[in-house]
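Self-study notes.
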Amino acid sequence: MKFALFSLMMNIPNAVTGESLTAQQKFHNVIKQAVLAEKLGFHAYGVGERHGAPFLSSSPPIVLTGIAAHTSTIRLLTTVTVLSVLDPVRVAEDYATLDHLSGGRLELIIGKGNDPRHYPLFGITEEEQWESLAERYGLLRELWTSESVSWNGKYRPPLQGVTTQPRPYQPSIPVWHGSASSPLSTELAAKYGEPIFSSNSFHPQAKYKALIDHYRERWAFYGHDPKDAVVGAGAGSLYLADTNEEAINRYRPYYNAFRSTDSAKHNQSPFTSLEDNIANGPALVGNADQVIEKILDYHNAFGHEVLSISVDGLTEAEQEEQLIRFAEEIIPVLKREIPSKVWS
């Protein structure tokens, strides 16, 4: 298994200390996370895209460029690029530039996003999100693979003989499809023969497994070799301690603070408590053996080769503590137990 650390750059007061970071402090915190992740042997660092408080991640290509300047080997992900509301020409230009500045370390995870505030902000309706995503992705692929592109569609003005600059540094920038709520995302990924990344954050395992199963079924339908299907998955909250009781007690204030945010309420998680989430959901809270057991259980259901985690919201000292514990107590076991052809 391979491992990614990601941040949505949620900037709320710390649930334990009450400390608030300025926007600039949060940007530096994310860069420090990425530098530490590379040092600890994580394979990728991701920045999500949100357009509204309490998130500061409205410009992932700029943040990832800053991270690229402070790192040298770690893959750079977008978790996710909300392509359903973006101009593919601008996306093609921005991310091709980042691809050059990072020396070819970029990988896009595209999706429609899960914050309805961005639809009116960018001039589409929520009902159009899937049609918009499919059209814009088709154009983005064409802009990256062809020159002198002429195109006509619904969600941006026509193009005539356009070659975006710069051309990508990599022969083909890898693209994953974010999967959280609809088989339309897994259908698009299977159609193009590209990997999916399950959010696996707010709901029971069965919901995400159904989407992953649909992806594999449609993958075969489109004539792709089943062994080539690739799945990544996120995780719920991460908090490791020597005992399950200690982990729960230390993490509970953070869990309650996250659940009270508008974004968490929008996701309508069915779990009634932290204990319910640990027992029946994706939360990785407990001692190392318990967390490993849960990840292996999810792998048996999903067959995923990449796992992403986040430590946002914790104090910087706790972020470092959790990442070091994960790198020392979890990663070696899962690398040994679960093979992965990704980023090899």
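Second protein, same conventions, sequence then structure:
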Amino acid sequence: MEHIAHAILLAALAGAAMPLGAWLAGFDRVLPGPLRNEANHWIMAFGAGALLSAVALVLIPEGIARVPGLVALLPVGLGALAALAADIVLSHRGGSRAQFMAMLMDFIPEAIAMGAILTADPNLAVLLAILIGAQNLPEGFNADRELSVSSATPRGKRLLLFVALVPAGPIAALLGITLLSGWPALLGVLMLFSAGGILYLMFQDIAPQVPVDRHWSPPLGAILGFAFGLGGHILTL
């Protein structure tokens, strides 16, 4: 029961970063135009760096530890193809929702993985929860701005949508700790599938939006985001 309560708490805190980021997006107009534009690109870059750290330091290493050999390449490819298919469908329906997709494609599988890992390696589970939160905050920020352009949904309803996504984390963590902890190969496939989808979204939709004309600092946000995840990884070694 202690592990279950711990998993629920970690997943809820990590998930709460989504509506917090979406709420903060409403204040980006406080900054003057050019500075606001560069700050928004910085936030997007930090989220991309945090996503990359999760893929490079947690999802891929833990995935291939459970799915050995070249078989591990299959779920990575399938994850990328699934993200491609979803991106095409959403584009045909009008506008890109890459940030919203990325937020869901890393939050739910990582919450499942966090729950499954918690009983075996609590420190790694805490690191994963921190990385999820670090990703969800800028992703919530960027996803709300993205939806404000591609959707006519009022801001209040958009915030409620983000709040409604928070319980998905504890539910996913419970699934991981009760079911998938006994199925390491299936957990590995899920982590690799998520990694493939995240990588597709990063290079197709998120990374191309980071640069700003005549501004060279926003890409450093990606380095900062990755360094944040790397520092946490080093502390768990």
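Instructor comment on the second fold: The chain has nine helices and no strands.
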